[in-house]
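Page 42, continued from yesterday. The earlier attempt failed because a stray header line got pasted into the input along with the sequence. Redoing it now with the clean sequence only.
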Amino acid sequence: MSTSVRSYGGRSAEERTTDRRHRLVEATVALLAEHGESGTTMTAICARAALTERYFYESFAHREDALLAALDQVCSQIAAAAVGVLEQTSGSPEQRVHAVMASFVDLVSRQPSVGLVAVVHSSATPTLRARRHELIGTFADLVAAEAAVLYGPDAWPAERARLQGLVYIAGFAELVASWLTGEVELSAEQLTETASDLFVSLSRRP
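This time it went through. Structure tokens are written below.
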């Protein structure tokens, strides 16, 4: 039986590899949030994940790959949560937007590491900054697409909608970063209301 399909403890080699990679990414997210980029060394990641360097290099060519994987994971988590709430929430566009923002604020309140990696430590290295730039574009596209669904003919045309989305995502990211680091004092509800109002004002034509 080949190594790729051999099973130990009921799990295949591929499943064990996937699990180890997940542990390494989770460790990277936690370390970035707690200690920043300088404290997120390959050795620290391995120690946090309780894995040897051998297994680190099984998943990543170098530390930068692990940092990128951590950023991608938290942003995927945020996007999936937002889309899920929209799909499950009825009511007016404003009510649905409020539900999404409340869900996001709740997520980063319960798991600050998600927000800290997404909007604070995502500019720590040139490679991370480049990925952050790409992700802002991805989220801007998501905002434009959802605005079209929510507001129909009252939404901006596609090209303008993306520009509005870029303004919203970039501004919202800075607001959340300031909130998480204590530079801006807002309650969770105030942050939710502010984010919701900004979305509506930028996504719907006057």
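Notes: Strands lie at 7-8, 11-12.
Reminder to self: strip header lines before submitting.
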